[in-house]
Write a structure and sequence with these properties.
It is built from 4 helices and 5 strands; from the N terminus they run E-E-H-H-E-E-E-H-H. With 201 residues, the chain is of the alpha+beta class. It has a 3-stranded antiparallel β-sheet with strand order 1-2-3. 19% of the residues are buried.
């Protein structure tokens, strides 16, 4: 597909596959040019490793499967976007807006160096596309579109993973704090008993 090209999903105009690329974060956000891209890509790699370690620790400690699944979604989404950033710029020619297809090229001769590749986005859901009423004080008469950002499956995985932790696994965070408080209470009780017992000669 050429850059910017797309098609409706199952004939629905509000659900589309739309090929775009973004240079930065999820949902088309960007940050700080070339240096910002290096910082962002490096941060992604570090965070993916850290989250992978947390996932392994949770698995070893026998946490419930729903929590493991949520963290797995986050790690998988992060790795998916990292692959785009690391490799795509090195193995593809640049995509131009309706200017021809990108081509697979010899490794290292693509449109960007290591860690500077663009993330491919393709999911677009413009469910509401309208002109706001003129009587609105600020945005009256302007076009309003929801949902405007184009995103990818990796973004969806990260968002779903975070949301499922917040909605379905809040007890994981509260149980840790309760466990710490219980242990502190036991230690305080033990020390109190030790201080009240008479010393044996």
């Amino acid at each position: 597909m050429e850059y910017g090209a797309g098609f409706d999903i199952l004939g629905f105009s509000w659900a589309r596959i739309q090929f775009v690329e973004n240079e930065g974060m999820a949902f088309g956000l960007s940050y700080g040019g070339v240096n910002g891209k290096y910082v962002l890509s490096t941060f992604r790699i570090i965070m993916a490793g850290f989250l992978g370690y947390i996932l392994y620790s949770l698995w070893k400690s026998g946490e419930k499967k729903s929590l493991l699944f949520s963290f797995s979604l986050i790690v998988a989404g992060a790795v998916g976007n990292i692959i785009d950033c690391i490799l795509y710029g090195m193995i593809f020619s640049e995509s131009h807006y309706h200017g021809g297809l990108a081509q697979l090229v010899p490794f290292g001769t693509g449109y960007a160096p290591l860690l500077q590749g663009k993330v491919v986005d393709m999911l677009y859901f413009p469910m509401v596309d309208t002109i706001l009423p003129q009587w609105l004080p600020i945005w009256g008469g302007e076009r309003f579109e929801f949902f405007r950002p184009v995103f990818n499956i990796a973004d969806s995985a990260i968002t779903t993973g975070v949301a499922s932790i917040i909605i379905f696994n809040r007890s994981f965070f509260t149980s840790d704090s309760k466990k710490n408080k219980t242990e502190e209470t036991k230690q305080d009780t033990a020390s109190t008993l030790d201080s009240t017992l008479p010393e044996q000669e």
